[in-house]
């Protein structure tokens, strides 16, 4: 078993993460510890591919964002206890230089996730937390750090905020997963919903989307597209797996059917939307399969493409190529079912498959075309294949403008 989507979309997140770590440990890796993390890095060059470097992070990295200087910010979920700090096992944020040197480690909140960086260089961090919306230690909230890692403020979001993005006006949009196991779509405490914050952290509104929203993208007109993980059944009914389009004021405009357990959405230069469906682990185009879907700017399904097993995140480079991270079977490799990174052309053809680490969780592309992937791993920070670390696939993509304000650029 691996990663949170592979059960019944994890009724209890903590139990699942514990099982994932134990499974990877059984494969030959170690568990987390309180010892100081290694600081080394490794790199390799294939005769047929780019140089791939690996850098040591904290325990269970998964959120990633790149700032205007090309520095790479990584959110370390930690060991699942929710403790915040700068020692191994703690929940924290690390900043790396564009060459992979660790610059600093900052304290954010409990179990931080998918970060975003605004046009002023401030870093917005959603903290999954304990499911209590509040500003106390361990709570579910949003923290804003400046470019030096100094905390500017803590904003109360909903229950288990899971994703954040910044629009062209500098407003932050947050997807709140809601209460685990029993969440419904609504605006009450514990519900699955979307919140909008001003650049100063003022709550501008709470909007109803679907059940268990996991990501948000904003198109060129300012409309907000929300991926709802749902119950795994593709459809438009309440609770189904789908994508919703909201206006900039939060009004529901449309609901479109996605695949099984859609997770991440990104918009390309033509305005088309790309969605990864975590699915059942079988790469294919049948209902329930793991795949990637392309939608028009109006929400019409254009095509379904086969990627790897359990795709979880994607990014679009400056040439319109689509980069997909596949959680896979926890084994880094290029075989069907493995944990890897796939590059698709704008027409959905698989161009390359790259080996990252165990359970690659997210992906970001910098201005030089380097591809950065945090690997959840077994919880032991290190550069071995099953450990928790950060992979850089060097000079393999076409660069994009960072940070991804009003994404994508």
What are the defining features of this structure?
409 residues, mainly beta, Neuraminidase, 4-stranded antiparallel sheet, 29 strands
3D structure, described in words:
Residues 1-39 have low confidence and may be disordered. The strands form 7 sheets. The chain has a 5-stranded antiparallel β-sheet, with no helix packed on it. The chain has a 4-stranded antiparallel β-sheet with strand order 3-4-5-6, with no helix packed on it. It has 409 residues and is mainly β. Strand 3 and strand 4 form a beta hairpin. The longest helix has 14 residues, at 13-26. The protein has one helix spanning 13-26; strands at 41-45, 51-56, 61-66, 72-76, 92-96, 102-106, 116-117, 123-127, 141-145, 151-155, 161-166, 172-176, 193-197, 203-207, 213-218, 224-228, 242-246, 252-257, 262-267, 273-277, 291-295, 301-305, 311-316, 322-326, 340-344, 350-354, 364-365, 371-375, 389-393. It has one domain (4-393): Neuraminidase, CATH 2.120.10. It contains 1 helix and 29 strands.
Q: What share of residues is helical? A: under 10%
Largest sheet: 5 strands, antiparallel
**What is the CATH architecture annotation?**
6 Propeller
First-to-last CA distance: 36 Å
Q: What fold name stands as the CATH topology?
A: Neuraminidase
Task: Tell me the CATH superfamily.
Answer: TolB, C-terminal domain
Low-confidence stretches: 1-39
Instruction: Look at the structure and give the CATH class.
Output: Mainly Beta
Integer count of domains = 1
The rough form would be described as globular
Order of helices and strands: HEEEEEEEEEEEEEEEEEEEEEEEEEEEEE
Derived structural class: mainly beta
Determine the strand fraction and express it as a percent band.
35-45%
């Amino acid at each position: 078993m691996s990663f949170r989507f592979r059960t019944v979309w994890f009724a209890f997140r903590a139990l699942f993460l514990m099982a994932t770590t134990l499974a990877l440990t059984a494969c030959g890796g170690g568990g987390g510890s309180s010892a100081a993390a290694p600081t080394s890095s490794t790199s390799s060059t294939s005769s047929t591919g780019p140089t791939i470097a690996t850098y040591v992070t904290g325990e269970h990295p998964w959120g990633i964002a790149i700032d205007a200087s090309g520095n790479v910010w990584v959110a370390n979920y930690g060991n699942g206890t929710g403790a915040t700090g700068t020692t191994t096992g703690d929940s924290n944020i690390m900043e790396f230089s564009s060459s992979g040197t660790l610059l600093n480690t900052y304290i954010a909140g409990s179990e931080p996730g998918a970060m975003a960086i605004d046009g002023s260089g401030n870093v917005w961090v959603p903290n999954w937390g304990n499911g209590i919306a509040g500003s106390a230690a361990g709570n579910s909230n949003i923290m804003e750090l400046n470019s030096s890692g100094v905390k500017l403020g803590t904003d109360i979001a909903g229950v288990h905020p899971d994703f954040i993005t910044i629009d062209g006006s500098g407003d932050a949009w947050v997807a709140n997963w809601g209460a685990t196991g029993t969440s419904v779509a609504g605006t009450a405490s514990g519900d699955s919903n979307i919140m909008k914050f001003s650049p100063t952290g003022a709550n501008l509104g709470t909007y109803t989307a679907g059940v268990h929203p996991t990501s948000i993208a904003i198109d060129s007109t300012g409309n907000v597209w929300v991926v709802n993980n749902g119950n795994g059944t593709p459809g438009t009914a309440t609770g189904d797996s789908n994508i919703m389009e909201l206006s900039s004021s939060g009004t529901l405009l449309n609901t479109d059917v996605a695949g099984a357990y859609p997770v991440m959405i990104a918009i390309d230069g033509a305005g088309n939307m790309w969605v990864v469906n975590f699915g059942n682990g079988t790469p294919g185009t049948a209902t329930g399969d793991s795949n990637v879907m392309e939608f028009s700017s109006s929400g019409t399904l254009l095509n379904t493409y086969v990627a790897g097993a359990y795709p979880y995140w994607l990014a679009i480079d400056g040439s319109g190529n689509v980069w997909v991270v596949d959680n896979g079977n926890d084994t880094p490799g290029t075989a069907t079912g493995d944990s890897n990174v796939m590059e698709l052309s704008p027409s959905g053809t698989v161009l390359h498959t790259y080996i990252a680490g165990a359970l690659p969780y997210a992906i970001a592309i910098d201005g030089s075309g380097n591809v950065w992937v945090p690997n959840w791993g077994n919880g032991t920070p290190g550069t071995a294949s099953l450990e928790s670390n950060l992979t850089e696939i060097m000079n393999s993509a076409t660069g994009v403008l960072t940070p991804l304000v009003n994404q994508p650029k």
